[in-house]
Amino acid sequence: MIAFLTSNPGDSCVENGVRVSRAGRLSEENGFLERLKTVWPEKAECLLLCAEPERAGMNDRMGRTLEECFALSGLSVYRMTVCDQRNSIILSSLLLLSNVVILSGGHTLTQNRFFRRIGLKQMLQQYDGLLIGISGGSMNCGKEVYALPELPGETSIPARDRFLTGLGLMEMMILPHFQLLETEILDGKRLIGDIALPDSRGHCFYGLPDGSYVQIQDGECEIVGRYCRIMNGEIFLNN
How do residues 60-74 score in pLDDT, each as one tens digit? Predict the structure, then answer.
């Protein structure tokens, strides 16, 4: 398996403080699109695994947006299949037909529960195609996942319950959109200063700004682009 775990591949932007999907050319920052093109299959059978399985309409729109993004980027798609609550029971069959698996962005905790319920970790052990992670989907690829609070009220979740079991594709715990998280406040608390830094005691998180990504190939992980390490209550910049 070859994996690209992105913060934002270019399929979304922030408008008035809200992240929205948009159809456009994928990011070329740090050589992302160029690298993706070298491994993109000629007839891409794409399978989009969603974060919020009950929201069928939103998931279908996301699939159409991604398909358009790929087309605008010169990546041909034979078929885009959306996997959520409607068809997750046949996931093993869908994976057999797919050579590109996309793990969508969205609410990380909800997606983590969905992936565990459908047994995705075990099924991916037999998958040998291309995998693309987007935001929360990238986070859930870790052996252990740090689910930083995203919704009002979630800052009250005990710190120990923010650490989840992931898909096990990498050892790193990543925080996407880090350039936004640094100033974001939820429930009156700073997401980084008041929550992530204390939670990093005994752990290491990797903050990825939009444009940076992790590439996994032959079992090796490479962070491409800028990032920072958050560990033992401190932030260390890597340019």
Answer: 999 999 999 999 999
Nearest residue to 27 via CA among 135, 147, 188, 163: 135
Question: Over the stretch 151-210, which tens digit does the pLDDT of each residue have?
Answer: 999 999 999 999 999 999 999 999 999 999 999 999 999 999 999 999 999 999 999 999
Single pTM value for the model: 0.94
